[in-house]
Amino acid sequence: MACGDRRVTIQLVDEEPEAGVGGPKLFRGQRFEAIQAASLNAGILFRDPYFPAGPDALGYDKLGPHSEKAKGVQWMRPHEFCSEPQFICEDMSRTDVCQGSLGNCWFLAAAASLTLHPRLLYRVVPPGQGFQEGYAGVFHFQLWQFGHWVDVVVDDRLPVREGKLMFVRSEQRNEFWAPLLEKAYAKLHGSYEVMRGGHMNEAFVDFTGGVGEVLYLRENIPGLFSVLRHALAKESLVGATALSDRGEYRTDDGLVKGHAYSITGTQKVSLGFTKVRLLRLRNPWGRVEWTGAWSDSCPRWDAIPFQWREALMVKKEDGEFWMELQDFLRHFNTVQICSLSPECLGPSPAGGGWHIHTFQGRWVRGFNSGGSLPGAETFWTNPQFRLTLLEPDEEEDDEEGPWGGWGAAGAQGLAQGGSIPKCTVLLSLIQRNRRRLRAQGLTYLTVGFHVFQIPEELLGIWDSPRSRELLPRLLRADRSAFSARRDVSRRCRLRPGHYLVVPSAAHVGDESDFTLRIFSERRHTAVEIDDNISADLQALMVPYAPLERGLEQLFQELAGEKEELGASQLQTLLSIALEPARAHAQTPGEIGLRTCEQLLQCFGHGRSLALPHFQQLWGRLLQWQATFNKFDEDTSGTMNSYELRLALKAAGFHLNNQLTQILTSRYRDSRLQVDFERFVSCMARLTSIFHHCSQYLDGGEGVVCLTHRQWMEVATFS
After folding, report:
1. pLDDT tens figures, 218-246
2. pLDDT by residue (tens digit) across 583-598?
3. What is the set of domains in the chain, with CATH numbers?
4. Is residue 283 among the annotated active site residues?
5. Rounded to an integer, what distance in angstroms lies between the CA atom of residue 28 and that of residue 679?
6. Which candidate in 3, 105, 492, 682 is catalytic?
């Protein structure tokens, strides 16, 4: 037999960093400096082959190639329809971002907020670009995407109709950083049209790498003004949405329901003996303003000192206006706050900034997409992460009302009532790459997470197969958080101890990539609950044993003079030998030719199988059949694909989540079932994988160290 006779353990190690590797990833491998130099050398202006100026870049439906809105569109460089174009005119400001006809106010409101913080904006919009010296028709921008920064290159051909930009423009018509940033975002996600509709926090996070949180104003959270003031002081990006059940529409008092606004400032002013709390908001349209109390033309401004009036008032139609907090609460439904960095999420402890863990994962139908109901039979299959909080937060004086320095955390904790626990944890779940799929008719899933407490007495056995049985016994440590948004975040105040974080899609079988980030003020540990990769090949071996006389005679008849079976002869032999089991509806169906070829690779010499090797194959096959029957509880001839991981472990293979996911996706059928032939094929494949890895054994210790790339090459070979 070709298989080894020892335990093989695969230890995955990180890749050695390549010299010079660092900084943002290059989208499509395009490097701005190289493209600029090559274009200048050749004396031509850059034309982007990965995002060609044309109908596909516009969209797929309302902006599709044959749509009315796509008619008459020309793709022009700024100097072709504007005299003396500038990348940036003097200084950037929030009035540089005025919405066009795209319906992406969420993106533009976030961009307007970003201009309030130049050091952050210049991370997204690298300086040193322009239409004069070094101009080659190419620009670049940097956007955060699910754990890293991405550098996106674009050419400067923009969609124009009747001599005017179709989409975002600057109030200064010869300024083009905002339209080019919008084009970079469209390229990153596939087209302009996929930018229709969204939440400001999505763009906030992509501009900063921060963590977005949503405050629902219907909860009447106390201390909102202090939170907004502190958030803006910490350079957090802040926005608000006036939700609507019937799309965007303008009200009599100048607000636009269903629209996203930036919150750009706060101010307390004295009106007689009364302190008035004002918020400054901006409509990304660059026009259409609030006409109620404290609007630009409101007579109340005449009642405050002249110097205050001069400092706060700018009477022009720029989309920016002031309104009183109480009016704001009547008209707006949500506030969205994005902390720009972990250090901005709350008071910085004496030992340094926040502690962070980031995990990348995927929900796969039939494997680990178990739904959001803890009582469901598939819930245990969801990805699970064990969080251990080691140290309580430091106590701090609350100088700013009930929310203090914690912002949304304190507000939500107090609004929910009860005492505040001792550890502050922020959980952030992001659906990856879903916006790109809009052209295929897909939208954001409803996703979220549960947090359970793991009692000390159960900790030692949590990573064992018994965890499936124990999960329903765990107590929820905090309210669940689920939403049909790209980013779902929640702050929890928990006591030191052990917790289980279970991110999931709302419905069983929903598939999506996700990123889970865990922040805590003080030290914590966080690990994905996973298995070591190993197999005891010696224990899996079956000693040579004589075959039943009839089976041995059948082998010899089919083997002929060569005394060895090929794939087709093995298929015939197994078809006859397994007939009694099929008669009892335990393993219906036949072993296919491709699977027989796999068995030859594993147990024979690749192309043929001698009698001693068949003896071991047959013994192993009977073992696999017994394991399969154990999980085929209804004797239907199939097992549920969610059970495959348990069956593989029962058969002696310990696999990590990544490989189990690959195997499940490969061997399940459209009904999420695994029949006996698929199970045999999977077992043969695993046996071959571990045999291949055993060739790397060094010193007889049985541990093979492979990089993640090497492991995937081995694990996914055909």
Report:
1. 766 678 898 899 888 877 889 998 877 66
2. 555 555 578 999 999 9
3. 31-198 (no CATH), 211-338 (3.90.70.10), 353-397+405-529 (2.60.120.380), 535-715 (1.10.238.10)
4. yes
5. 39
6. 105
